[in-house]
Design goal:
Layout: H1 9-15, H2 17-30, H3 35-44, H4 62-75, H5 77-90, H6 98-105, E1 112-125, E2 128-138, E3 146-155, E4 158-159, E5 161-163, E6 166-167, E7 169-175, E8 180-182, E9 196-206, E10 210-212, H7 229-258, H8 272-304, H9 311-338, H10 349-360, H11 369-378
Parallel strand pairs: 1-3
Antiparallel strand pairs: 1-2, 2-9, 3-4, 3-7, 5-6, 7-10, 8-9
Helix pairs in contact: 1-4, 2-4, 4-5, 4-7, 5-7, 7-8, 7-9, 7-10, 8-9, 9-10, 9-11
Length: 388
């Protein structure tokens, strides 16, 4: 069951829908989340919903996070993606030393974003590390006050190793003034996320502004923080997709009730292709979303009772997220195609839903290879499970 002590973030998301929808075009044009929307999200607590209450966050459960992201994404996929990035990055607060977590995540109006991929290089110095690196896909970085990036710690003779073939990778948190953001986000979909490349050059990172990948703190004890990290990230990405899918179906229903296709005397809604198509889209979306929410509930029940989350459970969670995203994409494709020529105009939201959903599905967390990983585990084959 959801954490009943957390604020009703889902209701807040629906209350902000008109603002989010009205600012979507501006976000697309600027390539950044609209400043009014970012401020509204911060005030609603969306960026800190997964941060512990000890730090002033909402300490929400994964189901609440997913349904909130879904609700925002119905109004605008790029806005939902920004909420997803802020919320999922908030889970990393529990891996930092408490002193660092308070400094980085303690701002009630702050946004912390980051990229897990260890593309940086860190060298040990007194009190911390000197870090240099460049990271792509820095979603929300233009609106953030802290930006994190993964880095491999370098020793005198090469990367430090924590075991055979496993380098010592750490997340490093940088203050916004120390980060250079490059104008690289010129893309087909999710344009309003501002997912530009960012870089740092020989920036000092105190030790308490860093944590080893896979580490766990000794101060955060809520079951919410035992939820698999990659599972919650994948679920958040999938929630953007399901929100876009719902928006596309709703838009097709509006269009079908008003449009008479060229060469026809009947409304689009009166044609058998539209009727069967929208029904198929609805079934695809609901089945994928139901699989995702049901698996999240099962995993949440397990962490609440203190059970160890098995590799098979982690794989099922990733499979559910991927299925939800891919099903949503199929649903959007049906709606886009049924919209006919109307779908290609910038004034029609279906073209944006189409572009956005096919950008979401390119994310590694919900990509086609996830199916292979899940299948190998189900068949008992040796599998790299490091990203489950």
């Amino acid at each position: 069951m959801p954490n009943e002590s957390a604020p009703d973030y889902v209701a807040r998301a629906f209350e902000l829908a008109d603002l989010v929808r009205s600012a979507a075009s501006a976000g697309e044009a600027s390539g950044q989340v609209d400043s009014r929307v970012a401020a509204a999200f911060a005030a609603a607590g969306f960026f800190r919903m997964m941060v512990p209450r000890l730090l002033g966050g909402g300490e929400a459960d994964a189901l609440t996070m997913v349904e909130t992201i879904d609700a925002v994404s119905r109004a605008d996929g790029a806005a939902g993606w920004t909420v997803m990035i802020g919320a999922t990055t908030g889970t990393s607060s529990t891996q930092l030393p408490l002193e660092g977590a308070r400094e980085i995540f303690g701002d009630p109006n702050g946004l912390v974003v980051g990229v897990v991929a260890p593309r940086g290089r860190a060298v040990r110095v007194e009190g911390g590390f000197r870090v240099t690196g460049t990271w792509p896909f820095g979603s929300g970085s233009g609106a953030a006050n802290w930006i994190a990036g993964g880095a491999v710690v370098q020793g005198p003779e090469g990367p430090e190793m924590i075991s055979d073939n496993v380098p010592h990778a750490r997340m490093m948190f940088f203050r916004r003034p120390d980060v250079s953001i490059e104008d690289t986000w010129h893309v087909s979909g999710l344009r309003g996320t501002g997912s530009n490349d960012f870089s740092v050059t020989d920036v000092f990172v105190p030790g308490h502004h860093s944590y080893a990948m896979g580490a766990h703190s000794d101060w955060a004890h809520s079951p919410a923080f035992r939820f698999p990290f990659f599972g919650i990230l994948a679920a958040g990405v999938a929630a953007v997709a399901t929100g876009i899918g719902r928006a596309a179906i709703d838009e097709l229903a509006r269009l079908a009730a008003a449009k008479t296709p060229t060469g026809s005397r009947r409304l689009l809604a009166e044609r058998a292709a539209a009727q069967s198509g929208i029904a198929e889209a609805e079934a695809l979306l609901r089945s994928g979303r139901g699989f995702l929410l049901g698996t999240i509930r099962e995993t949440w029940d397990a962490v609440q009772t203190g059970e160890r989350i098995t590799t098979a459970q982690k794989a099922l969670l990733r499979l559910a997220a991927t299925t939800a995203a891919l099903n949503a994409a199929k649903a959007v494709d049906i709606c886009y195609n049924l919209g006919g020529a109307s779908s290609i105009y910038e004034s029609n939201p279906l073209q944006r839903h189409f572009r956005d959903i096919h950008t979401v599905t390119q994310h590694v967390m919900v990509g086609q290879p996830t199916l292979e990983v899940a299948g190998r585990i189900m068949l008992g084959l040796p599998t790299d499970t490091s990203t489950l």
